[in-house]
């Protein structure tokens, strides 16, 4: 992975100035025996270059501040007193207090609080991530490295699933899981079980794209050495596509821990509520008077995601870029 | 026997796609087809079915005011959100593509909202910002401006929900940035020598060369926008006066508060067909406006 990061930075450094670089080259084509006019022209160019660099930074910083301000304000507001929260735009509290956090730990009654809700969240998110990754890798390997009866038809069907929107599946899936008795299951069966069957098409697609760029020589020599197809998958393929596997795991982690509709439909005992539902309920019961508590609860609920993002930001960005570039 | 063994050996790869095949049949194909079936019935999860085949659900989508409004609102929402998001994403990606120090830091800052934005926590934050006595209105009040009531004014509520998604332009931006990096610098130099201005270079070189990615972003963002649920459900509950009731919210309300599965299925199918039409138009039209580098050879 570190290799990739270096590459990225190199790219940035090597890339010549797009705008001014070219025109400057033209002007500097005859460096020796510079006449006054040429010197002047060069000076002008330098100034123009400085101005446009300044403008770019200006735009980036202004837009960046607008983008990040709501998040910074949110963090500050958690430490404010309720009377102060909306009284100024300043994210830094005048009289800092931990009341918001203290109250956020309190229960709203019922058998649930923020910690328990977060524990609930990760008790299904982690199995979901593992099952999604394993089933997607296995499927991608099958499609990318083998020919079998019906290969092309099945591959086309698999790709078509990329364009099947979830909205059309929600209602019938609910009825199906209802038949299976998975709704309100203590083990979040309705959320977890489908992930064991490679239902996340985007990941299969991404892994296949990645596999296509992995040379087959290593697999062939492993085959000659007596490895069977399963050993090849585990010993050769998985280590080679590890960066893509990590990206899949990270995205699935983010998506499933942020997912709101899934738990809303399939979890119905308060003691089993995940953080997303808990935060929504705390907002409904408190918004209007106890904002620091609600915001602190919200912030606590996304802390793991924030930490994971900053620990692995390059993997996220590589993952997104890989999906978008035509392979 | 030998033949069977040979057959098995030749098709060994099939074993690897069995989990996917089961998932496809049970969790995708069957629900998909059963949804089509239910959409032509008046099936209710508790009351069951009273009559057989009916087209009433589909007629309702285009005639009952609440449903027709939801359909129109969904279009309005998508055509508001997607262009704004893409223009922002491309604009910032274009600037980030210049050789500037700290590009990675900016890229991260712009990307954070995308990764966190889908969470309920951010929806809560949005409510705190745009509430009638929330931060944005208080801020305007401080400089003596009486800002609109974003949450309770039907004219503004949809825009507020839309801005939440525009704010998350980061992932589209990262995709654009990767594409921009792939555009050869020689082309810009040649154009500069020919005297093309920067704007001209952008429209004549950059944009044509990255059209495949523009197309990719357009399709994925449209599909997302047409299915938007969290914003309206959590922040505005479809209000005020139904001004943020998007189709997916209507589907949810019909299916899971009224348990009218037939009605909800029909609404979902209308949405699905619309999405398919858009996807097909984009695929068809890309022949005319998308430039793929391989075409030249």
Topology:
The complex is a heterodimer of chains A (327) and B (297).
Chain A: H1 2-14, H2 19-27, H3 36-78, H4 99-105, H5 114-145, H6 151-160, H7 167-180, H8 189-192, H9 201-212, H10 217-224, H11 229-240, H12 242-258, H13 261-266, H14 275-286, H15 291-311, H16 313-324
Chain B: H1 2-10, H2 14-39, H3 56-63, H4 65-96, H5 103-116, H6 120-130, H7 135-142, H8 154-166, H9 170-181, H10 185-193, H11 198-209, H12 211-226, H13 230-236, H14 247-256, H15 261-289
Helix pairs in contact in B: 2-15, 3-4, 4-8, 4-9, 4-12, 5-9, 6-13, 8-13, 9-12, 12-15, 14-15
| Fold-level CATH name of the largest domain in chain A | MetI-like fold
In terms of per-residue confidence, which ranges of chain A show pLDDT below 50 for 5 or more consecutive residues?
1-30
Along the chain, the helix and strand elements of chain A come as HHHHHHHHHHHHHHHH
Helix content of chain A: over 70%
Calculate the terminal CA-CA distance of chain A, rounded to whole Å.
20 Å
Text of the CATH class of chain B: Mainly Alpha
Percentage of residues assigned to helices of chain B: over 70%
The SSE string of chain B, one letter per element, is HHHHHHHHHHHHHHH
Overall CATH class of the largest domain in chain A:
Mainly Alpha
Structural commentary:
- The complex is a heterodimer of chains A (327) and B (297).
- Chain A is mainly alpha-helical and 327 residues long.
- Chain A folds into 2 domains: 87 residues, no CATH class; 217 residues, Orthogonal Bundle (MetI-like fold), CATH 1.10.3720.10.
- Chain A has 16 helices and no strands.
- Chain A is flat.
- The N terminus of chain A is likely disordered.
- Chain B is an all-alpha fold and 297 residues long.
- Helix content of chain B is 73%, strand content 0%.
- Chain B contains 15 helices and no strands.
- In chain B, helix 4 runs parallel beside helix 8, helix 5 runs antiparallel to helix 9 and helix 9 packs antiparallel against helix 12.
- Chain B is globular.
- The termini of chain B are far apart.
- The chains are: A mainly alpha (327), B mainly alpha (297).
- At the A-B interface, helix 1, helix 2, helix 3, helix 5 and helix 6 of A face helix 2, helix 4, helix 5, helix 6 and helix 7 of B.
């Amino acid at each position: 992975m570190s290799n990739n990061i270096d590459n990225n930075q190199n790219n940035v450094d090597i890339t010549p100035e797009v705008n001014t670089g070219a025109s400057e080259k033209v002007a500097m084509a005859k460096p020796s025996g510079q006449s006054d006019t040429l010197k002047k022209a060069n000076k002008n160019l330098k100034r123009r270059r400085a101005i446009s660099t300044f403008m770019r930074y200006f735009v980036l910083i202004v837009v960046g501040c607008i983008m990040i301000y709501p998040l910074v304000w949110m963090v500050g507001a958690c430490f404010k007193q309720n009377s102060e929260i909306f009284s100024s735009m300043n994210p830094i509290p005048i009289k800092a207090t931990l009341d918001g956090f203290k109250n956020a730990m309190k229960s709203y009654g019922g058998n649930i609080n923020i910690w328990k809700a977060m524990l609930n969240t990760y008790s299904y998110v982690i199995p979901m991530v593992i099952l999604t990754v394993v089933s997607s890798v296995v499927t991608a390997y099958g499609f990318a490295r083998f020919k079998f009866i019906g290969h092309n038809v099945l591959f086309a069907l698999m790709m078509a699933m990329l364009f099947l929107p979830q909205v059309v599946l929600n209602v019938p899936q609910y009825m199906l899981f209802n038949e299976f008795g998975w709704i309100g299951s203590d083990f979040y069966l309705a959320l977890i079980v489908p992930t064991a069957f490679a239902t996340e098409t985007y990941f299969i697609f991404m892994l296949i794209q990645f596999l296509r760029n992995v040379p087959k020589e290593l697999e062939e020599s492993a085959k000659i050495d007596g490895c069977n197809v399963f050993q090849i998958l585990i010993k050769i393929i998985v280590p080679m596509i590890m960066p893509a596997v990590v990206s899949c795991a990270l995205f699935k982690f983010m998506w499933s821990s942020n997912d709101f509709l899934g738990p809303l439909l399939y979890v119905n005992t308060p003691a089993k509520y995940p953080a997303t539902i808990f935060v929504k309920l705390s907002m409904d019961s408190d918004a209007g008077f106890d904002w620091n508590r609600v915001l602190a609860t919200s912030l606590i609920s996304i802390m793991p995601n924030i930490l994971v993002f900053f620990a692995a930001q390059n993997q996220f960005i590589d993952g997104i870029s890989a999906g978008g570039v035509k392979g | 026997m030998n033949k069977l063994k040979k057959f098995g050996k030749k098709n060994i790869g099939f074993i690897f796609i069995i989990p996917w095949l089961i998932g496809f049949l049970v969790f995708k194909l069957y629900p998909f087809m059963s949804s089509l079936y239910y959409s032509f019935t008046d099936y209710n999860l508790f009351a069951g079915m009273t009559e057989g085949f009916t087209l009433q659900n589909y007629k309702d989508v285009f005639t009952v005011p609440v449903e027709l409004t939801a359909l129109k609102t969904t279009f309005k929402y998508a055509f508001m959100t997607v262009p704004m998001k893409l223009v922002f994403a491309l604009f910032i990606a274009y600037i980030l593509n210049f050789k500037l120090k700290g590009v990675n830091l900016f890229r991260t800052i712009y990307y954070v909202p995308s990764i966190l934005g889908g969470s309920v926590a951010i929806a809560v934050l949005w409510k705190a910002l745009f509430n009638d006595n929330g931060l944005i209105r208080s801020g305007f009040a401080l400089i003596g401006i009486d800002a609109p009531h974003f949450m309770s004014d039907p004219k503004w509520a949809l825009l507020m929900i839309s801005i939440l998604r525009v704010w998350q332009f980061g992932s589209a931006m990262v995709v654009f940035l990767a594409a921009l990096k792939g555009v050869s610098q020689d082309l810009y130099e040649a154009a500069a020598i020919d005297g093309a201005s920067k704007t001209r270079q952008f429209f004549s070189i950059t944009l044509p060369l990255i059209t495949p990615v523009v197309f990719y972003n357009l399709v994925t963002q449209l599909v997302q926008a047409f299915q938007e649920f969290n914003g309206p459900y959590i922040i505005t509950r479809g209000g005020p006066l139904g001004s943020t009731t998007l189709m997916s919210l209507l589907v949810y309300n019909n299916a899971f508060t009224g348990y009218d599965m037939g009605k909800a299925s029909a609404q979902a199918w209308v949405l699905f067909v619309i999405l398919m039409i858009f996807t097909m138009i984009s695929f068809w039209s890309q022949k005319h406006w998308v430039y793929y580098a391989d075409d030249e050879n």
